[in-house]
Amino acid sequence: MGFNDKVAIVTGAGQGIGLEICRRLAKEGARVILNDLDTKLAAEAANQITIEKGACIPVAGDSGESEIIQQMMDTAVSKFAKLDIAIANAGITLYGDFFTYMPDSFFKVMKVNLGGSFFLAQAAANQMKKQKSRGALLFTSSVTGHQAHKNLAAYGMSKAALEMLAKNLVIELSEFGINVNTIAPGATLTERTIEDPGYENTWSKITPMGRPANVSDIASAALFLVSDEARHITGQSLIIDGGWTSISPSPY
């Protein structure tokens, strides 16, 4: 899909969906800056990709912090002289009853899910504009931005906001050849979700396609939207949920 020698930043990529996106990008010839909050996880993931697929550099830290965003940008430019793709995949989920949800939890979710995505997009777009070359931005939303889930009011709100951000940035970025889109994964088997022994069985029963997604399902959609094949697609959100949002049965 035209990733040879492209340079990409992917946040929240030490494991799960983000890691698979990095692996696939590197396999297709991209040079990747891999971010994760966990220093050890980021280093191990980047080393694994470098051995197996190609160039991958870890930048550990909170992707909601401006210093870490700048470090990722500086690494991309100093090591590879440009940036072509930025994928704001990092996000946190803090469950809680609406009536007792604490301000600390609310603002932590917003800082990472919204602030990190907004300011990564801002920094990446400024670099792409400076380069005078087209680029691609991608946000990771969620089906919870489309359908209500119990105890996820703040999280769902943050994910719905990312989809509006992508639409709004069409106005700002199109003249510079930068497209911006969003993926909205549904239930997905990752290192975190498989810790719940009933997760796969529950979601297999209520997903029309008969199973939750795997990370490859999500990564395939992500790669398409940041590829040259999707250069005329912008401001859109692609739901990847095996049909769950069409009927929306509760997992509870």
The major sheet is characterized as: 7 strands, parallel
CATH class: Alpha Beta
Helix content: 40-55%
CATH-wise, what's the superfamily? NAD(P)-binding Rossmann-like Domain
**What is the percentage of strand-forming residues?**
15-25%
Distance between the termini: 40 Å
Category from helices, strands and their pairing = alpha/beta
Count up the helices: 8
Tell me, what's the shape?
A: globular
Question: How are strands sequenced across the largest beta sheet?
Answer: 3-2-1-4-5-6-9
Order of helices and strands: EHEHEHEHEHEEHEHEH
Question: What is the second-level CATH architecture?
Answer: 3-Layer(aba) Sandwich
Alpha-carbon Rg, integer: 17 Å
Note down, in words, how this protein is organized.
The chain has helices at 16-27, 39-52, 66-80, 103-131, 153-173, 199-206, 215-225, 244-247, and strands at 7-10, 31-36, 56-60, 85-88, 135-140, 178-185, 188-189, 213-214, 237-240. With 252 residues, it is an alpha/beta fold. It has one domain: Rossmann fold (3-Layer(aba) Sandwich), CATH 3.40.50.720. It has a seven-stranded parallel beta sheet with strand order 3-2-1-4-5-6-9, with helices on both faces. A two-stranded parallel sheet has the order 7-8. Strand 7, helix 6 and strand 8 (213-214) form a beta-alpha-beta unit. Helix 3 runs parallel beside helix 4 (103-131) and helix 4 (103-131) packs parallel to helix 5. The longest helix is centred in the middle third of the chain and has 29 residues, at 103-131. It is globular and about 50 Å long. The relative contact order is 0.14. The mean pLDDT is 95.
